Amino acid sequence: MGLLPAYIDKIEELSISEQDTPDQVYAFLSVFPSFELFKQLRTLYFHFNGEAIDWPIVERALNSLSQTTIDTLSIKAMNTDNRSSLGNVIINLFGLKSLKRFSFRSKIDSINWSDLTKISSNIEHLTISGIHFRFQDLQYISKCAPHLKYLDVDLINIMYPYHDEAEMNPKKSLILMSTLRTLVLYFQRDSSITMNMLTEYFNCMPVLNRLEIKAHTELLDGNVWKMLLETSLPLLTHFTLRTTTFRVEEVDLHHVLASFQSSYWISKKNFNIIITKHEYSDFNGFGIDKMKYNVRYEFDWPVIQCWIAPDRTENESKRQISNV
């Protein structure tokens, strides 16, 4: 830390994290309260525990990024449930003109994503994980970030978990996402999102070529997916549909896998469904000793069994891998 002042005008990348190094963020910000001091800063990894540092110190540091020309930003914020103003800070970060790659992982339920409609963003690569984000909030991302090429988002309804998004989904004109090439969507296991709702958005992604879905039971019909991909995503070259035995009963596995065993799926070399069985892990991915984990719940737990379809060998209708 003592050597930093001598090189402060040359530093292009900073990694400040409390993973394995408690109190590092506080120690750093005590000496350098503003990132504006780092004139050449382009990349920042900022992973903090909200219980280990006064929020005004963090808020000041994040707000100071508006005075930099940063292009890559990763924020992982733990224990921030009561930091309502964090949502406003995050929304403002979307407006940084130099920012191209942004990853935000936390567990908060107070972000008003509709505020993005007031912002024009240059972000091209975006990851949002663990935060209250409804399916209908995708429209705000598409309007705010017209240059988006990569989007990875967890669709998590924390505030109103029992509301049916299929009924709440507003009938609005969706914005064309003309540059989006890669999309990764995580759905809660009890999600009410339907294939028809997905189709509306896919029709606005004309150049999408990579798609990964972490799906609930409503999205596991191979025949319906075939029709959707052929009509809405003709340029798709890579497709992965993932689910777990927490979401589909093992007695139904054969039926699900069989629907992906047609000649269409076999001919698509990079189109697959993967069903995994996991060892249960009794933690939610947060805490100072767990900062290396994100919040994808069962998909991150240790895999003990795996089924893949279609099987492209001659003799089996499915492939099973045990004791992965």
TrEMBL record:
<dbReference type="InterPro" id="IPR032675">
    <property type="entry name" value="LRR_dom_sf"/>
</dbReference>
<protein>
    <submittedName>
        <fullName>Uncharacterized protein</fullName>
    </submittedName>
</protein>
